[in-house]
Write a structure and sequence with these properties.
By secondary structure, this protein is α+β, with helices and mostly antiparallel strands. It is built from ten helices and 33 strands. The chain has a ten-stranded mixed β-sheet with strand order 5-2-1-11-10-9-23-24-25-26. Strands 14-15-16-19-21-20-22 form a seven-stranded mixed β-sheet. Strands 3, 4, 6, 7 and 8 form a five-stranded antiparallel β-sheet that branches. A hairpin with a 6-residue loop joins strand 27 and strand 28. The longest helix has 15 residues. It is globular, with a radius of gyration of 26 Å. The structure holds fe (ii) ion (FE2). Fe (ii) ion (FE2) binds next to loops.
Length: 632
């Protein structure tokens, strides 16, 4: 969502009622000289760093991207290890997987069997090199006293340095990062919010439309040191907003998509979703439906997070905020299936705090009695009413809604029809809206008008960039807004500016508390180190002293038969498999116990097998070894 739609509307209304002047910022066209991101050669081949996401009590997704040499077109075996110490000596889990061009050489591993509420460190190895080590943390199970999350959204690369990310990394005082969307922007270089003071230019330079475009844009973002460092230190929980596809996206189109010149929307949408899935560490509610990001994550008895997709899954087209169509009872922002899943999950939640993590503001925003933003829940009133009715009918308490999208900061009571702004009675919960990391508000004044016209809105900041720290305990949930001191240069300073909280059972906002402070456990947690370990000896199950070495596959390309020449370090049972590049296992056979030393085994190829590249795997009790083969 770009702000000018909102404030274009406000401006029209304000020509009649407002006395405050509105000011707009103007984008300037960048002069492209060279890439503004330098590749850190020491990170080769893991230039994009590491990441983790969607932690639960006993598992977490770990992620990386390996960049093979430019002339490499086949698959890459990537090993991973997860340990309880930064030096990676106390290995808890390890393994390996194959990645290739079909998934843009990204790697996702759902590491299971972990302990709740625990820090872990992880790294990847491939092509003889190790990645940086990442730190992650599992969610608590059962009783939990306190939790802290950083809330971020809207990171326009060309608008400024990602100083908010650097600040969160430096503070070392949260459990996880919640990214509320607009992780990337789709515009061409200079197309949105360009800040000439930074010299930051997007890659690719064109508006992103194809799969290759979206992949390149994600790759460029992950090369930013501040984003890479943030991913390295904390698990993320992410949802997309509109700019991961195109501005003001809905189910069947977007404000910034013209089928006449940019092709069919389903193709663009599918490309954007694929790149998002490849480049971010999500755990899907249903792994067979990676276009559905709505899901929930439990943080013990204290907190349950519900992640919604108000953009691509079910949203009807924006149609203003008044009129018969807008008020139609069948109009939807979520889609019927997501609505049913969400309300069922909300009703059955046993957690103290129910945190609804989504994209667009749910509290009404009206000027002179007119809702001004068709892109928010104001444009979908019937479905919002049904959600409000679900909350009130079932007496669901401690609702906290998290929102991004609009590059400004808000704290709202969520008013039911009987809402009393003086006492807070009739508020169904509270809403915290995170500012943009860098994305500009196109309006810098006007907050007094908004506050006067909307008594349930308790805080507005229309001009600053930064993030929110949400501190949750059994007594209250508090949001602290932090703002960066500059976007123009690299500077990790961010200062707390406002704190609001909701007490357990109240359902409405209170103010007057001090900025929240992390407990000693968070503050003393050891960060993953910046350096890379020497990785000549591959760790874990790829330890060559315990596995096998494929010396050759003959012939290669393969016709109807092939022979594998391999070496066994010790006597073991051996299994040979062939995988398609997408990971499908084509065949598997056991060739029994093999003695130490050199071996040759001969196999026939099913004549029905489609020609192309495949991965041959030799698996022993202690490891796996792979080779790329071409079948004619
Ligand atoms: Fe945004």
């Amino acid at each position: 969502m770009r702000f000018k739609e909102v404030f274009g509307a406000i401006l029209i209304v304000c020509t009649f009622i407002c006395t405050t002047n509105f000011t707009y910022s103007q984008s300037k066209t960048p002069i492209r000289t060279a890439s503004s991101i330098q590749l850190n050669a020491s990170l080769k081949p893991f230039y994009h760093g590491v990441a983790s996401g969607d932690p639960i009590a006993d598992a977490v997704i770990i992620w990386t991207r390996v960049t093979p040499d430019s002339n490499f077109t086949g698959a890459v075996v990537v090993s991973w290890s997860l340990a309880s110490d930064t030096g990676m000596t106390q290995i808890v889990q390890n393994g390996s997987m194959i990645t290739d061009a079909s998934r843009d050489y990204t790697v996702h591993v759902d590491v299971t069997g972990l302990q709740p509420d625990s820090y872990y460190y992880y790294e990847f190895s491939a092509l003889g090199k190790c990645s940086v080590r990442g730190r992650t943390k599992t969610a608590p199970q059962g009783d939990a006293d306190s939790l802290r999350f950083a809330l971020i959204s809207c990171a326009s690369f060309e608008s400024g340095f990602f100083n908010a990310y650097a600040s969160i990394t430096e503070h070392n005082d949260i459990d996880a990062v919640i990214h509320l969307g607009d992780y990337i922007y789709e515009y061409e270089s200079g197309g949105y919010g360009f800040n000439p003071a930074t010299g930051r230019l997007s890659e690719p330079a064109n508006e992103i439309i194809s799969l290759a475009d979206y992949r390149t844009r994600f790759s460029h973002y992950h090369l930013d040191k501040d984003l890479r460092n943030l991913h390295q230190q904390y698990p993320f929980m992410v949802i997309w907003d509109d700019h991961e596809t195109a501005d003001n996206a809905w189910r069947n189109g977007a404000g910034n998509h013209d089928p006449a010149t940019e092709g069919p929307w389903p193709i663009r949408k599918s490309a954007a979703i694929q790149a998002y899935n490849e480049w971010l560490p999500l755990r899907y509610r249903d792994p067979l439906h990676k276009d559905e990001i709505f899901r929930k994550v439990q943080y013990g008895d204290l907190c349950e997070l519900f992640f919604l997709d108000t953009r691509l899954h079910g949203r009807d087209q924006q149609m203003g905020t008044t009129g018969t169509q807008v008020n139609s009872p069948s109009r939807t922002l979520l889609g019927a299936d997501q609505f049913e899943w969400f309300t069922d999950a909300l009703k059955s939640s046993q957690a103290q705090w129910k945190v609804i993590t989504q994209q667009v503001m749910i509290a009404p925003l009206k000027i002179a009695g007119i809702a001004v933003n068709e892109d928010q829940w104001d444009g979908y009133p019937a479905e919002r009413r049904k959600i409000f009715d679900t909350i009130s009918t079932h007496n669901i308490s401690n609702i906290v809604v998290l929102t991004g999208d609009i590059h400004t900061s808000w704290a709202n009571d969520i008013p039911d029809s009987n809402y009393n702004a003086s006492t807070g009675a009739g508020s169904l919960g509270v809403e915290f809206v995170a500012p943009g990391v860098t994305s500009p508000s196109e309006l810098t004044t006007g907050a007094p008008i908004i506050l006067a016209a909307n008594e349930h809105i308790k805080y507005v900041n229309l001009s600053e960039n930064g993030y929110v720290i949400m501190d949750v305990n059994k007594t209250r949930t508090q949001a602290d807004w932090y703002y960066v001191v500059t976007l123009d240069s690299s500077n990790s300073t961010a200062l707390p500016a406002q704190s609001l909280f909701v007490n357990d059972g109240d359902g409405f906002l209170s103010s007057g508390g001090a900025v929240s402070v992390a407990n000693a456990e968070l503050l003393s947690a050891i960060q993953a180190p910046a350096g890379i370990r020497s990785c000549i000896q591959v760790v874990g199950s790829e330890d060559l002293s315990n596995a096998s070495v494929i010396l050759g596959v003959y012939p290669n390309p393969i016709d109807d038969h092939f022979t594998v020449h391999y070496y066994m370090e010790q006597a073991q049972e051996v299994q040979v498999s062939l995988f398609a590049l997408d990971g499908r296992e084509i065949f598997r056979t056991s060739i029994g116990r093999q003695n130490p030393g050199l071996h040759r085994s001969r196999f026939s190829v099913d004549e029905d097998l489609t020609g192309g590249l495949y991965i041959l795997e030799i698996k022993t009790g202690t490891g796996k070894t792979h080779a790329k083969v071409l079948i004619q």
